[in-house]
Amino acid sequence: MANYHKDNAHWMNLLEQNPHKYFDDLKELYNNSDEEAEKLVNSSEYSGWFGNHVHLLCHLVGKLIVFGKYGSRDFYGAGIEYFDETLAIEILKLLYLCGVNLNFKNYYNVTPLESIQDSGLTKRTDNSNFISNLITLTEAFNKPNLDE
Q1: I need a labelling partner for 8 at 20 to 30 A (CA). Which of 21, 25, 95, 139 fits?
Q2: pTM
């Protein structure tokens, strides 16, 4: 069993450097403690612009085409030229299952959906299916629960 008591920076690095292991470990964490999984996926760090794990995923998915408006290569995901969209969708669905807040606003006061739709400091292509899935899940997240 994986060690889940690592800090959020560890999980951020794992998502960026070894997304398959991130997926497997997060799935195992969710199966063992959905409350811990929810807490983790909604945590944020300075190096990820204080965004949750969906924000982080949005910075990674697809093909990187712009390294930053200011020429900086010092940002989350800068070393990742391409992040597989199919895997990103599976991770997104798992994050949703874990209870990630899709309305969470990062340091720049934007949600994950707003972040990926804005050019911001970076731009990625080859992620339209991911964006479609994010839109669908965001709509579901914001739909009133009539059972309450």
Answers
A1: 139
A2: 0.86
Displacement of CA 137 from its chain's centroid (Å): 13
Contacts of 72 by beta carbon, 8 Å cutoff, 6+ apart: 121
Q: State pLDDT tens for residues 18-38.
A: 999 999 999 999 999 989 999
Total domains in the chain come to 1
Please check whether residue 101 lies inside any domain of the structure: yes
- Within 8 A by CB and 6+ apart from 113, the residues are 102, 131, 134, 135, 138
Amino acid in position 102: L
In terms of residue numbers, what domain contains 123?
A: 8-141
Q: Return the structure tokens found at 108.
A: 């720049």
